Amino acid sequence: MPSLLHIDSSADLSHSRSRALTAAFADAWRARGPEYTVVRRDLHVDQLPHLETSALHWAAADRTPEESVAPEAEALRQQVIDELLSADVVVVGAPLYNYTVPSTLKAWIDRVHIPGVLTGGVQPLAGKPVVTIVSRGGTYDAGTPTEDWDHGSPVLHIVLGTALGMKLYPVTVSATLADRLPDLAPLAGHAAAEFADARTTIERLATTLG
Length: 210
Fold this sequence. Notes:
Rossmann fold, five-stranded parallel beta sheet, alpha/beta
């Protein structure tokens, strides 16, 4: 059965734009038929710990004799890896927090970016579709002082797209705080239109990928 891995990382459980878009993707995926299943990993509600030891960054065969990993930490890492390997399609909600990905998402990335297992000469995930939904409270338009301040999107591109070799489908929405910050209020209409366009794109991808 086709399986979707649905990942969220927003700390906002009520009004998150990234959560709304990943949910729209999952709903459209399920609508394709009862055989289209979803595995959910909510990285904010059920947070992964930071790496217990730097040895977890390496495959077991590449660790030095002095590097040891507790069995439960090894099992958790393997669970996260198996979820990713088992999915036919992945959707990742990644709001921009202080110009980069949330720490909860970074903890997940640290458990899958492993040379000799998923990267570094081996790419068992090569070509697997991953839809990344980056929601940005402000604007980062070309030619503005903040055009280079989005450090979250490059992380996802480098790790998922380049290192893991996945087929990246990036979706971005901006000015999501236009309804809360007076300085962004003039962009509210533009932000709403961009969100609607993103939802249309998301639903189209959910019905064609996999």
